[in-house]
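Got a spare moment? Tell me how you read both lines of this record:
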Amino acid sequence: MDIEFNKNEDALKQLVFQLQSKLKKVHMGGGEKRIQKEHNKGKLTARERVDYLLDEGSEFLEIGAFAGEGMYQEVGGCPSGGVVTGIGYIKGRQCVVVANDATVKAGAWFPITAKKNLRAQEVAIENRLPIVYLVDSAGVFLPMQDEIFPDKEHFGRMFRNNAVMSSMGIVQIAAIMGSCVAGGAYLPIMSDEALIVEGTGSIFLAGSYLVKAAIGETIDNETLGGATTHSEISGVTDYKCKDDKEALDHIRNIFDKMGDYNKAGFSRIEPAAPKHDEKEIYGMMPADRVKPYDMMEIINRLVDNSEFEPYKEHYGQSLICGLARIDGWAVGIVANQRKIVKSKKGEMQMGGVIYSDSADKAARFIMNCNQKKIPLVFLQDVSGFMVGSKAEHGGIIKDGAKMVNAMANSVVPKFTILIGNSYGAGNYAMCGKAYDPRLIYAWPTAQLAVMSGASAAKTLLQIQVSALKAKGEEITPEAEQELLERITAKYNEELSPYYAAARLWVDGIIDPLETRKVISMGIEAANHAPIEKPYNVGVIQT
């Protein structure tokens, strides 16, 4: 092992350690005191409920663990968006789980909570996965109601999705394990079946205080909307359970009797580990992100038996395209080559940049994968498309448009992993969040923005200096340097994968060694949704 490898390995392992430390903190929700408060009421926490519900020893792919990270600090923050979501297994059956975290502001909904809930429903809809809601929420966080309540992608979209999912035949089961108030009361009752826990579960359109204020009636919450009321008088709920565990056992029993699902029919054989040691990835990602590296070395440590079938290997070399298997599943991989390559025309091409020939190749490869019903995996470390007169005269916009068109119209499921840079139109062409990847995760080494920090800071500095000069103000070199440092610091903070994960631009941040798990569980989920739409790219630029 050389010194460079060891240096890279130390740097990436340090980032993974930081990731694990941040996750431990996030998993504590509202903190130990709030956890104890839930236990004192005889309740499990959201994460304890999810652990108990899912098959022992099975994988859980969390979605949005860092949602809300660093946001809403003025009101005490909202760890993990106040809700736990992800893909797991109940009685061997893959499903989506959504569990309100009552340790975070009594499970109240912040704007990011709504966004995260909608993302979980989107995963269920796209993949036709059953979904379980473990409801324990005080409802909308009133000081921010204007950011949660009225718009298309706000709170109300949840219930619209309940109705749409029901019409699609997607199984929805809800357990009322705590408060369930106002509009939120519709979520469990618009599900196929609703369970309620005695003593702690309650559901009503208006609580006792509001009832008193509105119509003058004096009544306690349990009589108004507790388990006995809704299981024996109103008939609103279907099962009454004595405690959390009994409710979760009921859900497991329901899953145990469910029929099989229709399959998309993606190819899978017996999984095999990569022949090259996966852990060597740590030493292969340069600590200095400007340095080149060979993306094939990463791919060989992600794919089964380290076997890769390259497509147009010696043409358009700044993008690697080819077929492989990941955990037994057949995939088509589109990845940015980060080493400098030389085309047969004698042109030196920079790593991480998409040129006309590589965009052309990728478009054709993507179309081929759709023809053969092969899921697509995008490995991003992209600076953008090539610029300058030579690229423009060569039709880079036309070729880039062709690639975006082929990718955007794909009917096979797409999965995106941000390994390094994810800048500008490169993010788009390589299936960024706007292009409906079924899952999109980032390594701790990822950066996500319209351009690199250095480029952006210099551009923003020029704009600000010009604005000052236009007002007749001169700026000293020292003041200009200080301004540049301030702009760079702010921009670099926004480049962070944690900034992206907090806002759900990515579904999460993972240790590189979890990449195979994410893609495998993602394709397994996608296999629940048969492809019903023909592949049609419309007008392709030629």
